[in-house]
């Protein structure tokens, strides 16, 4: 029996980049943390929590996780959407954290216990030119990774998603009061990407799991062509080929290629992906614990996916905080159809502000044995890094029209 919630607070901090964290406190002194970060729209979720949710949480029983989720989801009347669902996710993660701490158990134990010893992770390798990209992939393998996402520049373009011209690290959001404008030309990309990925495959040999992200930019026909042309590169997956709103597109893509397809980082409920799963139009579902309703809702999505041999592979960029990243790793250890976890990595300051029991070694992740989610917040340190306005880029085609970033 856990005591009721007596305090709910939002912590906005920027150790390297902005994060929104919900902190819940119980009458018996337990503290639970949840992540509500939506990259480039952070303060909207902070306000949703502060102004509309936190006042409702004081007095509730945090042990009633599912009821709390239903209360916030059904009770809003205005359902779904990234801001609402990020706020619900944060509450869900915080009450799972409290339940684990009250039980003295890591959350993966509450979810049914371990079904594997460790979770395969993939990271990013990016460089503008192919020789540097091959070096970067090699460096990631030296770091222990057995799965790597490769992104390169495109001749004729100044800026491209997933890669900075002069750096081998990639962080999409930039601080400032307006988004950076990137350029895009699908034809130039389609002429170049297959040769780059095939060259990476030749360089690394057959075993390394190789991934690539098209970041929602292609038409169904272009996506089908790319999938087909990438078959010799034997990708682990091709990600987000078409904009997430056009789910019918995946039908056409599927008919033309055996390249495995992954989608879902911008989805926020099971309703965004149920047809993709039940019609077996995708191979991997990439919903994140911070954005799609927390552990409680991800479990439902993954259970549906399991029936159709679709595997779970949550989004794990630097813009989901170490809190929800930890939650994802607990799910990974306890979910049978969990395939792989994206691990883009964090600024060293983020590791300090959010000390965590989860760990990476030899290409694999483990949530650790600390009770709850195993991620704490050093609030004194967090206070030293106040929010800084930052935006994701936008993109325009060469004729100047807005396009999908
Ligand atoms: C990924 C993603 C990210 C997103 C970012 C937006 O696969 O990791 O596409 O790089 O662009 O999370 O905030
Ligand atoms: Mg992606």
Automatic annotation (TrEMBL):
Transmembrane segments: none annotated. This is Mannonate dehydratase. It comes from Kribbella steppae. Residues 130-260 form the Mandelate racemase/muconate lactonizing enzyme C-terminal domain. It comes from the Bacteria. One of its GO terms (biological process) is carbohydrate catabolic process. One of its GO terms (molecular function) is magnesium ion binding.
């Amino acid at each position: 029996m856990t005591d009721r919630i007596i305090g709910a607070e939002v912590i906005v901090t920027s150790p390297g980049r902005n994060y929104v964290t919900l902190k819940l406190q119980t009458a018996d002194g337990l503290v639970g943390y949840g992540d509500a970060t939506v990259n480039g729209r952070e303060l909207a979720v902070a306000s949703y929590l502060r102004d509309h949710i936190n006042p409702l949480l004081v007095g509730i029983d945090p042990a009633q996780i599912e009821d709390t989720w239903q209360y916030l989801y059904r009770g809003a009347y205005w359902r779904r959407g990234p801001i609402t669902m990020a706020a619900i996710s944060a509450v869900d993660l915080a009450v799972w954290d409290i339940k684990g701490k009250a039980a003295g158990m890591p959350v993966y134990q509450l979810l049914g216990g371990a079904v594997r010893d460790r979770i395969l992770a993939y990271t990013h390798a990016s460089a503008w030119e192919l020789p540097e990209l091959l070096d970067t992939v090699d460096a990631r393998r030296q770091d222990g990774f057995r799965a790597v996402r490769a992104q390169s520049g495109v001749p004729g373009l100044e800026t491209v998603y997933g890669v900075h011209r002069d750096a081998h690290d990639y962080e999409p959001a930039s601080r400032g009061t307006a988004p950076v404008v990137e350029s895009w030309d699908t034809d130039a990309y389609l002429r170049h990407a297959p040769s780059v990925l095939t060259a990476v495959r030749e360089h690394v040999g057959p075993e390394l799991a190789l991934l690539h992200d098209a970041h929602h930019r292609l038409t169904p026909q272009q996506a089908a062509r790319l999938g087909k042309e990438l078959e010799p590169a034997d990708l682990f997956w091709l990600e987000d080929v078409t904009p997430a709103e056009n789910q019918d597109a995946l039908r056409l893509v599927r008919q033309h290629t055996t390249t495995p397809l992954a989608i879902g980082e911008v989805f926020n409920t099971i309703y965004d992906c149920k047809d993709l799963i039940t019609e077996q139009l995708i191979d991997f579902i990439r919903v994140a614990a911070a954005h799609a309703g927390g552990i409680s809702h991800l479990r439902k999505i993954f259970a549906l996916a399991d029936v159709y041999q679709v595997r779970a592979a949550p989004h794990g960029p630097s813009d989901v905080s170490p809190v929800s990243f930890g939650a994802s790793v607990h799910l990974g250890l306890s979910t049978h159809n969990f395939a792989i976890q994206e691990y883009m990595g964090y600024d060293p300051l983020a590791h300090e502000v959010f000390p965590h029991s989860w760990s990476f070694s030899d290409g694999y992740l483990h949530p650790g044995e600390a009770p709850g989610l195993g991620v704490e917040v050093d609030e004194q340190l967090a206070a030293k890094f106040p929010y800084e306005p930052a935006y994701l880029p936008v993109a325009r085609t060469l004729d100047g029209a807005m396009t999908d970033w």
